[in-house]
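To whoever is on call:

I kicked off a structure prediction for a single chain this morning and the downstream step that reads the tokens threw a length-mismatch warning. I double-checked the sequence; it's 126 residues and nothing unusual in it as far as I can see. Pasting both halves so you can look.
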Amino acid sequence: MAFMILAVYVLLALFPFLPVDKLAAGRAETEFFMFRAGIFLALLILLALFLLRALHGAAYASGVWWEILMLAILAAGFLMASLLSLAPEVLIKNNLFNLSPLTLTLFTGVFAKWWLILPIFGVIFL
């Protein structure tokens, strides 16, 4: 689970430097987001596979069930906040994704920055 969180952090650091915006130029806002999110997820899968190979099975370490559950919740929330950070502000502001207000508040509002910080503490302390 920790390698997946690490892969998202690495990809968030590298993604702004990839020429994805030039490839998606001239598309509608929703298509632009879907294209960026698709590229992000494809690169995340590749990076996670490379990290899994490089760590040689360190991802298979066992833990207490509640530690695994907490890391899974932190990883899912971090991935959701990361994907929604790729969306143009117009899509979030007008809620063109038809997400619930709670989801928008938790992953795009003030709490979005907490989803960037909490997984680090989860990996360190759990």
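Update from on-call: the warning came from a stale cache, not from the record. Cleared it. Sanity check on the structure: The chain has seven helices and no strands.
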